[in-house]
Each structure stands twice: as C-alpha cells, then as structure tokens.
Batch of 4 targets.
Target 1
Amino acid sequence: MNGFFCEWREPARQIPPFQHGPERLTERPPSTQHIDWHALYPNDVILSGPTDRKTVALTFDDGPDAVWTPQILSVLDRYRIKAEFNCVGQRIQQYPYMLEEMFRRGHNIENHSWSHPNFTKISLTEARQQIERTNAFIERILGVRPYFFRPPYGALNQDVIREIISLRMKILLWDVDSLDWAGLTRKQVEANVLSQARPGSIILLHFAGGRDESLEDTVQALPNIIRTLRREGYSFATVAELLELPAYQPRGT
Ligand code: ZN
C-alpha cells in the first residue's frame, strides 16, 4: 500500500448507508429478466460484448471507499488492467480523492446512482435525479460525464429503461456474476467467475461493500481470476473498449 492511501485511510463505518441496503438477493430480479430486457432493447441494455474475441471486462460496483477500493486498485495495477468503476454518488462525495485516483490510473468512471435505491421502487423523477446528480458530481470533479449507468441490484422496468435512454445513456448489466458481496470464500468467488466467463463477458464484482461488510474475498480472488483467464488466452479490456463505445458522453450534450 503506498503513501497516498495510508494517508487517507479511514474507518469503513463512516460510509453512508445505501437507500435500499447493500447488494442482496431479495432486491435482485432473476437473471432471465435481464435477458428479456436485452432482447427488447439490444442496443441500450447491455449484458456482454462481442463473442468473436477472447476478451472480457471487469466491472466494479458500489464504491469508492477507503478500505477495499485501494486494495482492488493495487491488484489491477499489478496486472496492468483497466476496468469500469460504477460509482455511488454519495460515496464519491465522501471520497472525492479516491474518484480522482481511479480516474488518474486510467479506469473508466461510470454511474451507479446517488444513494443506491431500487429504481423500480422510486418515482421516475427521483430516478432521473439519482442519475443526473451523480453525473453532475463526477463531471464537476473529473470534467467527464458517464455514458454507462449500472442500475442498483440490476433492477429495471420498462419506464426506468426508457428514462435512462432519454438521458442518452447505456444500461450496463453483466453476464457473469461473482456474488462477491455475499460473504463467499475466495474459492467460491473464483469458481463463480471462472465457470461462467466466455468471450465478451462483462464480469460483475464490487469495490466497496455495505457498512462493515468485507470484500476480502474479492481482493483475494482477483489475482487468480486474472491469471487463470490469461492462461486460457483471454485479455482484459474496459467495457467501453469491448463494445467500441465511448466511456463518456460527448461534451455539450
Ligand atoms: Zn450496487
């Protein structure tokens, strides 16, 4: 751990709670619903990338924090991998220096709402505010506005999807779920990823958890996931690279 992170290390209990709690199965729709949404909106609801190349993308949700985020950044640096970090607005408000650090290291910064509500349980006005407030905050600090929105819990309905499309953003889902937020062992997280990964996969991991939740399994599992996939001939790209789309919205829109 370098001096930058030691200097800023803070206890995890300072992280504000999420509106509908941390990732949990009770808030999550079945993955078949994701496939249905993608079938209805193939260009706007993204599950994975092209299957003709052995390339995958790592995506991380729910941070930043000052405990797990630096450790995950260190692992990615060690293996020279750039990833998508889907950030929660209230957490970047608390750790703006971490947002800058992720961006400085070349990762893509995307939108995971302001306070992590289930978007099917709030009004469309609130949904829009959740996205726009986070975009505005990121733009104020980094000068870029996210192009991808990852819905908390992956929860969507038709109205929410249309609202996000009207904001000219893409909805970033996944086809490989590590379930790393569920208190699994390193081996279980590795198995979840390695058994599902295929060319074009978008892999869901986390870079911060709920209050007092540990992401030790993620930090421990990542090196072996990366080494194993590389041994199998895979390379790593950002989602934007995988899909050949911009990471950020064009200026002046
Ligand atoms: Zn989340």
Target 2
Amino acid sequence: MCGIVGYYGHREALPIIIKGLKRLEYRGYDSAGVALLGNKLEVFKTKGKVSDLENIIPQRMPQNVGMGHTRWATHGEPNDVNAHPHLSQSGNLAVIHNGIIENYGSLKEALIQNGHVFTSDTDSEVLIHLVEEIKNIEGCSLEEAVRLALNQVVGAYAIVILSRDEPSKLIAARKGSPLVVGFGEKGEYFLASDATPIVEYTRKVTYLDDGEMVFIKDGILTIKTIEDVEKSPYIQNLEISLDAIEKGGFEHFMLKEIFEQPKSILDSFRGRINSTTGAFMMRSLEEYEEKLRNIRRIVMLGCGTSWHAGLVGEYLFEELARIQVEVEYASEFRYRNPVISEDDLYIAISQSGETADTLAAMSLAKEHKATVFGICNVVGSSIPRMSDAGAYTHAGPEIGVASTKAFTSQVTVLSLLALALAKIRGTISNSQLKFYMAELENIPDKVEKTLKLDKQIIELSERFKDSKNFLYLGRGVNFPVALEGALKLKEISYIHAEGYPAAEMKHGPIALIDEQMPVVFIATRSPHYEKVISNIQEVKARKGIVIAIVTEGDAQVKKMADYIIEVPDTEEIFSPLLTTIPLQLLSYHIAVLRGCNVDQPRNLAKSVTVE
Ligand code: G6P
C-alpha cells in the first residue's frame, strides 16, 4: 500500500525517483507525486499513475535530494489534492507517507484550533502539520520535532520528510510499514518501500525496524529509535537481480511470473530435500524438531491468495502428518478472542511479508507464547523477522498484483513442511516419504508441460471473455484451487466469479446455473473423481457450460464436458501445483482480451500494509 522512494546524494534525484516509483507501482497507483529539494522545495503531484506524473514535470530537474510517492488511497479519494507529498502549514516541510495515522482526527482538531488549515482529506497531512507545530512550540530541531510527533501518533507509517530551510537534511522513519535504506557511494543514500528501486545502484541495504528513524545530515546517516536511542545499522547484501524485476520480453509481469513457475517451484524445494535418503536440509526444522514432534495443532494465518495456500496446506498436513489444522483469515483471527495454546504451531503465510493483518495475527499468537513459523517470499520483510522460525519460498520478486508464482511456491513449501512433520511424527514410512519427494522433484517438468496449454487457453478465453459470471468447483485439495481460480478471474478481469466445494453447489450456487453460466470443474484423478463426475452431470442437466481440468488421458469427463483441459498426472496432494496453472492462464487471457490492466487491476494493491 503506497510506495515511497527517497534519494540523497550527488546524482539527479528525479530520474532515480521516477524509476523507483515505477517499480513500486504495484503498491498502489491512485496518484503519484515528488518533492525535490534544492534552493527551493518543488512539489509535483497528480491523480493517476507515475506516467501521468511524468507528464507534468519538466524533463530535467537538477536537484540531488528528493522523494516520491505512489498512492493507494485510504483516507480521501484519489485526486490531485490528496496525492502526496503534503506540505506543512508554512509550506516549509513536506512529507510522503505509507500507512495510516489512526488518531489523525483528534490531532487534526487540535491543530485546527491552533490555526492550522488543511487542504487535503488525508491523515498524512496531519502528520506534517503536527511536526511543524511541535517545532515552533518547542523551538527544537526538525529531527527532534519529528521524533516527538511520532511519539504522539497512533498507527502505522513509513515516512520521508524534507525541509525547504534545511536542504542538506532528509529524515525518514518506519513503524508497521516497510522502509529499506540503501547505501550508495560515499554520502549517497536511497530509501524505498522495498529493495527493487535500490538494487541497480547498490547492494548494501538495511531494513529499518519498527520505531526506527533515519537522519541524513550533510551526507552522514544516523539511525535512532523514536525513544532517542542510537542504533548502528545492520547492513545486508541484496540478493535480487535486476532481471528478476523486469518484464524480460513478456507483455505483462503476470504472464512472466506464470511462466516462471517451473523454476520458482524448483527454487522452493531445491537443496531442501534428498529423495534418495528421505532427508530434509532445513535448519529451521532441525532447530524446532522437538517442538514439532509435540505440537497439538497447526493454525495457518494468511490473507487473499496466501490464505488459499493455507487451505491447501490443511489437506496436506492432515493427510500426511495426521495433525489437526485450522486455517484462519488473519483479519478475522486478530479481532476474535481466539484460544491460543503454547502447544500450537502458527504458520504465517505471506508473499510480501508486510500484510498488516497477518502481522497483527502473528503478534497475537506470540503474545500467547505460541511458536510462529513464517512462510514468506520477500527476504528481510517484517513477517520473517517476527517469526520464530521459517522458510523463504525463494520464488523471486513477484510484481504482478495478482499472485501466481508466489502461490505455487507457498504450496511447495507447505508440502515440504507437511512431509517433514509426517516424518518427525512417524505418520508415513521412509519409502513413502522418498516416493513423495521424488514426485515433487518431477513437478517443475510437469508444470513446464502444463504451460504448453497456453494456446488452447487463449482460444477458450476468446469464447468466454464476455461472460458475466463464472463458477469454479473442486473437491478435496482442489477446492482451494477453485477458490484461487475464481479470485484470479475477479481480481484482474472484473468478471464476477465464485469458488465453491463441488458438493456444496447443490446448496445454493446451483440456482445460478443456466445456459450462460461457465462452470470450471477441477476433476483430476483423485478418490473424489466419481463424485465430481456426478456434480458435472448435475450442472449439465441444468444446461451449464462445463470446462473441466482433467488428468491426461481422462475418458469419462471428456464425454460430458464442453471443454477439456488436460494436465499431467501426479499424486493428488501435489495436483494443485498443476491444476492452478490453467486457471491462472485463463484469467490472464480473459483480462487481456477485455482490455484490463492486468498488472495493476483497479482498486487493488500488492502489499496491503493497512488493516
Ligand atoms: C493482496 C494481494 C494478494 C495477496 C494478499 C496477501 O490482496 O493483492 O495477491 O494474496 O494481499 O498478501 P501477502 O503478501 O500477505 O501474501
């Protein structure tokens, strides 16, 4: 939610900021703005995308210090006025902000009484007025005023502040919203919501912790907490490559990421299993082996697609490790009064590692002393840092807003964990374990083969691009795949779609079926195959149009379905890794044919750092 970029150094700040904002546009694209600091403070901002912003800025701006913002609207509609940066009462100070200032209402009222006039509807504008008010009243430095203001603020923020009167200074801070600092050549610094805007300039970064502030003054950087304790930065080496964050010849990031899945799935298990011996090479598992042997139940936490991965995980853990599993929407869990025991294992699943609800749910579990295991894609993000143990998915940067390769990588890591737990708890034999490991090793090739369906799916998409509704049905471990298929379609093509357990159809959705309704069945080889066939017949009897994902060589479904998509055979527990692929492609091509902005669907953001 909202992307922020800052630059302080000797190069022209504007091109670095604009390029960085484009990389962060997946975080929001309702409006964009920059502030450039030299002899004066120049601000440009507009509703719309970064490309709209470029149209209103002179080509060359000489300033060497600046900041930029791409917004996902929370408080105040997406328009020019609510675009960031926001200025203080005097116009001397400017802020960009990612997050929500929850107590902005009461702060704003008090500031209005003291004569402040606000121009926008945002919570962020209140913050910069507050800083100026404190600076004037206390007569303190800007750094101190920012620190004191942040102590009054309730909520989440990543901010950058510039001052017209102090052109050699840049101040930034984070709490609840991510902020990375990159260390360039001597006295040169980059700031961004994630490392993608930084990677082409430097590999040396530090991820700020909650409650930390950065002061850059005359080329020297200091980190302090908002309690005024000085910290030395922990500098890490960035491991992402530039290629990984560019489209590499594909029309959209989403398509590139769909086609990357043979590799991303491989990277998720590579070096972690040995199918000859049945051994696992995962340090987090070794450290927690005793704990894992004795856990009472597993609770998975996630949002959106990550929650769907958790649902697949539920089937895997129950089937293989015979352990009780609950899968919770993090946003619901955090506001219930859940029963949390020290004997529970919480698995937090997140692509970005920054989802506010997932973080809050984890912290609730930790308050009750439960162990939290994180499954996350973005290295160094908040969720892995808050987890007791964890495993990265290693899918590489996912930029398309609709999650694709992150999902299959999450399912891969959950498969590893389920197998590992089964081994630790003795619920499967070593030969079964080795057999499953070997089959997992076959999956990347099978995904590669599944991707060859692309042409067939383009034809199918032509046929269904104008449909108003879609139903997705599956059973067992493919029920979550039905949910995920429906989510993908609605996210990027704006066609209404519902995912349902196939057998539940007769308790409601069957009423929707007529000759206009495409119904996507996941009907691959499984113990429920015959049952799914009955469900297909129920749809056909009501003149629904059946599109069936089946196992290669299937004979029965072929006879009754209108359209057949054949995926390679695999063990049922791994089938979501294959059945998901045609559904991703179907949504992608339908959305493209409808002229939708696939990588930046309306109203969505990739990283949801507000609750
Ligand atoms: C947003 C994204 C989804 C994602 C969800 C959870 O809604 O658009 O693609 O599944 O957040 O994000 P996370 O980063 O925690 O997996």
Target 3
Amino acid sequence: MKEIKIFSPATVANVSCGFDVLGFCLNSVGDEMIVRKTQDKGIKITKIEGYDLPYDTNLNVAGVSAQALYDHANPDCGFEIEINKKIKPGSGIGSSSASAAGSVFAINELLGKPYNKTELTAFAMKGEAVASKSEHADNIAPALFGGFTLVKSLEPLEILQIPTPDALHAVIVHPKIEIKTSEARAILPKEIPLKDAITQWSNVGSLIHALHTKNYDLICKSLNDVVAEPYRSKLIPYFEKTKNAALEAGALGSGISGSGPSIFTLCKGVVSARKIETVIRSIYNKSDLEFDTYISKINYRGIKIID
Ligand code: HSE
C-alpha cells in the first residue's frame, strides 16, 4: 500500500467530571487526510484545505506527531501528508488531536502496523503538546480507540476502553468564538479543595460504573464538574442557559466539550437528541453569534480508512 485516505473524528474530552482523563469519540464530524509514501525520506505536509495552518512540519500538529513516529521507526522511505481540515481549530472538539492522531494512524497503516494504539497515542501526544502547550491524551485516545476512553496514567501511558451504552447520543453546539486550550488551562486554579476533589472522583467513579452497567439514571447523576466548569463556563456565551435548557428538555447531562467553546449534551436516543438540538438552536438563533450544531452517536471505531 502506497497511499491511504482516512477519516479522523472529532472528540469530546473531560466529559464533565473526567478532566484530562475521560473522552469519547463522535462520528458526524472529522477531518480527512491522505498520506502517501515517498522515495524521499522525511515528513512533508503538501496540502492543507479548510483552515490556514502551518506547512512547516515542526509547527503543524500532524507533522510533529508524524515526525515523532518517523524518528522512532526510521523507515527507508518518507511520507507526504494532505489535510482536509473540517474541524475548526480552537472549537473544543479535538481539532488538533484529530490531526495529530490521523497522521500517525495513517503512517502506521502504511508501514504494516508496527505500533499498537497506545504507542500511537504517545506519538500523537507530541503533536497535541504543540497546540495546547501541555501533554494530555483525553482527545487523542478516543480518536484512536473509539468509544469512551479513560487515560489511566501518562507514565507509563495506559488507556482503558470503557463500554458505551447503545442508545447514548451526543448533541454538540459550537458557538464560533475561539478559546485556546492553553488559555483555558491557565485560568484554572492549581489546587482544589478536598471537598471538591471528593465530589469529582465520586462522579468519575460512578460515571464509569454507569457506562459499564448501562445505567442512564446514574450517567445523569454523574455528569457534574466542580473543577473546571465553574471557571471556564464564563468564557462561553449562553453556557448556563444552554445547559439548563438541555436538561429541561430531557438531557442526561451537559457540559463544556474539552476546553470549549463547544458544549456537549449526552442523551438517550436520537429523538431526544433532535429535541435537545432544536432547543439549543433556538437559544443561539436569538444571538448574533454564528454557531453549528451536530448530533452524533458515539463512534465505537475511531479513526477509519475511507475510499
Ligand atoms: N483536558 C483538556 C482540557 C482537553 O480540558 O484542557 C482540551 O481539549
């Protein structure tokens, strides 16, 4: 195989209570990438469509992660990468992770899959670090593994795949303002009170249990964040209104997607998802803000080969 085309999906990190450890994969929005083997050695980015991003391999997240894998594998060929960027950078649904994970997934396929998904996550984190100025894997892991993932530890890197109840759907609203992950991290306190830590780890534990046991009521009770949301929600126009309206319309829970500005809502079934999407759209329609909404089942597969 000389060339591969892939779909690299958007993802939701944190999932309210799981700051930096929990994430899930979407299937209705994602980037497309073409990666091909070349005789010339090295990594080159030859085409970028959709958004204005750097072609310099050392500055582009897809380039940095590809280079990390390439340096480790030391193959006797090179690779060129084309990116059709459909996820807006800074949207909070794992735009940089989709690029970072996509390039290493594709190169690994072209090399005959020498690396497993945990190893690919480690390479992709190098790219993610360029974009967010911190190493976290809660978007990259669900992009590569699919479904819900929990980053058990970074050193050594250990990713757990968490089962996803079948009827679970996500509704995403993306108000088109940009929030840089690095800035959204900088406003968080460095320490949290023990009382809040207890609430948070109780919610993470119960959410994982609820996903395993398909307990939608418990999912609902667990989707609370007392660590990041109180600080970050102020950056997102209509956050409280959107969250409250989604809950009133029957959502299981709603919170900031990653570092924002996108807001995710989880609900049971597509009928509920459509109702919630309508309610959310009516809030943003009354504003001057441009926005997008998406409804997505949880994507069990993660990045996939297309065409
Ligand atoms: N866990 C990261 C954060 C995700 O919230 O800063 C960034 O998308």
Target 4
Amino acid sequence: MKQSEIQMQEFAARTQKSKAALENGKKYIPLGVTSNFRYYPPHPVFVERAEGGRFWDLDGHEYLDHNLCFGVLIGGHSNPVVLEAVSQQFEKGTMYGMPYELEQKMAAELVSRFPIDRVRFANSGTEATMHAIRVARGFTGRDKIIKMEGCYHGVHDSVLVSFKPPIEKAGDPKMPTRVKSSLGVPDGTADNTIPCTFNDLEALDNCFRANREQVAAVILEPIMFNIGVAMPEAGYLQAVHDQCRKNGALFIVDEVKTGVKLAHGGACEYFGLKPDLICLAKAIGGGFPLAAFGGRLEVMDVLEKGLVFHAGTYNSNTVGIAAGYAMLTKVLTKDVYPRLSKLNQMLIDGYNDILKKNGLKGYAIGAGCNGTVQFAEREVKNYRDWLHVDEEMWKVWWYGLLNRGILAQAYAWDEQWTICVAHTENDMEMHLDRVRELVPLLQKAQG
Ligand code: PMP
C-alpha cells in the first residue's frame, strides 16, 4: 500500500463523525460541500468551531489552522476587534442598499494603500475580477483578454478557461491552446480568453501579435498562488505592464489573495506596480464577504459616466464594511507585516533545512504571510512546471500533518499556507516538529 493511502486510512479512522456528516450532507448538497474546492477524499474534515489560529473538528481534535479559509483570515478566526466592530454595526442595521459614510472611509483606506484613484465594492473575488474585466472591455472597446494558464480568478465564464488544462490538450507553451475548464462555459465567451504562460514574455508577445488591437486586458495573479507559490521573475510584472501599454491593453492585477496580505499595500507595494485595475477580496473583509475593484481615474471614469454597468444588492453591505474597516485600520496596521513575515520565514527556513538534511526532493518558498512546499526537482515558474510536483509526497505530507493536528494548507498541491496574527513562534516550532516526524514516511514516498 502507498504511504499516502496509509495516511488517508488513519485520517478516515480518526474522523468518523466527519465521514457521517458528509454522508448526511450528500442527501441535500451535491458532493456534500458547497464549493468544489472543499471536497477531498475520503471526506473533508467538518468543523465544529474555530478561534484564533486553530479549529476543532466534529470528533474533538484540535488543529493548527494554516488554511484560514483559503487565506482570508490573516486576522485569525473571530478576531475580537472585528467582532466588536460588527456587533456595534448590528445595532445600526445589517444592510441599507443605500449609501452611508463608513463605505467612504473604507474606500479611502483602500485608495491610500493601493495605487488606485477610485474603488467600487462587490462581495467575492469572482465578482471583483468579472467587474474589472468588464471595465477594461468597456474602456478599450475590445473583447479579448489574456490570462495565464493555471491562474484562477473565480468562477465567471471569461476566466473559467485554461485554469488547470490537461497537458495533452494544452498545446505549445509559447502559445497555449485554449481549454474550457467547465461544461456550461459558452464557446463564444471562452473564445475571447487567450491563455498565456506565466513568466514568459515571448509567449505574451505571441499572444498579442496573434490578436492585434483586440486585447482589452491582461489579467494575472502577481504571484501565482493557485499553483502553490510561483514567484514572478525579476522585472516580469513590469514588463507585462509595458507590453500592455504598447498594445493599448489594460493591466489587471488580481490581488484577491495578495491584497493587504503580501504587504500593507499588497503586491502593488511589494513589487512596485501601478496597474490600471486591481481586484481585491478575501482578507479585506476581515472574515466577512467583501470584495472591491479599483483603478486609475481615467479608467474608472467609465463607471462615473454610466458607460459600464455595475450594481449589486449586497455591495458594501454594512457588516462586511464594518468588519473590513476594523481589520484594516486596527489589526492589519503597518507594524504587523514584519512580524508575520518573520514567522513565515521561520517556517520556510525550517522546511528547507529539513528537506535538505534528509535528502528529500523539493523546496519551501513563500512571501509575506504565505508559503508552501513544492515537492519538485526544479523551481516551479509556471503551470507546466507545477505539473511535475510529486503528488504522492504531497499527500503523505498533507494527510500526515492533518493526522498530527496541523492543517498545513487547503487541500491540494496548488494551495499554500497562511500565517495569521494569532499564530506564534511556538506554533511554528510545533509545526516543524510534526514535519520531522514525517521524514521517514516522506523518504519512503519518494522511493
Ligand atoms: N482570484 C484569485 C486569485 C483567487 O485565489 C480566488 C479564490 N481563491 C478568486 C479570484 C475568486 O474569489 P472568490 O472565491 O471569492 O470568488
């Protein structure tokens, strides 16, 4: 039996209540979960409660939580500062569907952190990228967008293309073949999405050349956080922006995962970027649904003039805004970032030390409060590289840690861990100790 199967069996045996809960849920909910990303075999852990940097499952086990709702909860579960702000807002109304002053303060906070002049709110990362793309199309009068193969930007039709295409269908990396990522995405929409290869300026040039004066925007994640962690090569992001300018296209940076996490001013600050549009979600809501898209004045003017339509009943709902504003102004202040990076570096260095000393394939990599282990021979720089990650080793690591009280990251080798303000140096040490216990199993797994 494979090492990963042994770990999964152990996991199944210790989480019997989660197993029963999934069976029950399947009577009402397809696959028993309400987002495809929440399912993994043999059954996902069901949460009983969560607090700070930890959660407890139905069988009573405690876990150090590095998933933190797919990286949302940099402030930890139920951050008391956020709860206080939300309970005060509860007294004043949970939804208005009318303008109010706190949304302006939140907008001003985002404008002060990011190189944008105007911002509008939405409720999810999906909405943020959907609206930003529509703004770009409206502004340029063009329909096509270039997106990076392997990048995830949510579940609307324009971006559910070449998310994780099967390699046999993906074609030449210098000009990838478009592959729809779901049934139900119309050909007419998918045809306007051009897949490209991350960290490859020649591929980008090819995409632009083949679609002259038709590209409205390039959208990308500045660090590819949906193939683990793939850093942009030095100068790559600026060069993409320059290419966009040259071709009359806008540069959209999807900061759903990086915004207010990688740094106080997200990836724009970290890499010194000034894109035309940015997309925000996850951490900006402090644990409640909130998203935003913003850009320079001239671009966002299409909204001011009513040329591009944007609306939504739940946009800037008072609870999300109150939570997000408290999170940004009282929790995620400038001094927090060095502390989180230090903890993250402790984990990264610890992992690299363990891997090296024990002859294990792979490396740990990260930035800001996020990181992961890529069980690969060489550095993952794009989606095609990521396909070489050793799934067996990853599963031994992930289920092995789960069986030892650590949720290392959300399920699958395309995710990464998050460090939150409630985590401590002791937590990092405990995490690394548990990894040391797994070394013999990982050695067997790599054969
Ligand atoms: N963009 C990126 C980079 C993401 O990682 C995600 C979600 N993981 C989204 C967009 C979509 O966000 P949501 O799930 O809130 O729709």
